[in-house]
Design brief:
three-stranded antiparallel beta sheet
Length: 123
Amino acid sequence: MPERGIHEAGPCQKVDDGMARVFHLLGKRWTGLVVAVLLQRPVHFTELRRAIPGISERMLSDRLTELGAAGMVVREVDEGPPLRVSYHLTEAGAALEPALKELGAWAERYLPEEGTCPEALRK
């Protein structure tokens, strides 16, 4: 009988359902950055767009709609004049702060910046 390789040791494990839901929502481009900006304070749409260079109005609107549908962001309309729309995180959205801070610390330590290899990975 041929020896089985490490990848053939048994049936594949299914990805945890909770983790799949997290990455289905937060794994989309721009979503994490939108949440990171909103962690600081409630923000008007135009301020939010300026805080995330490269995001289009359409993409920002789509991401905010998805986050709202997931119960993470609330949209508030200030009748003005002028009419202004602001967004803030719900309790569920704000609860992401510790996890996002941990991811940021991990990135500082392990992800290369501008094509360089972090010192910790050179050992």
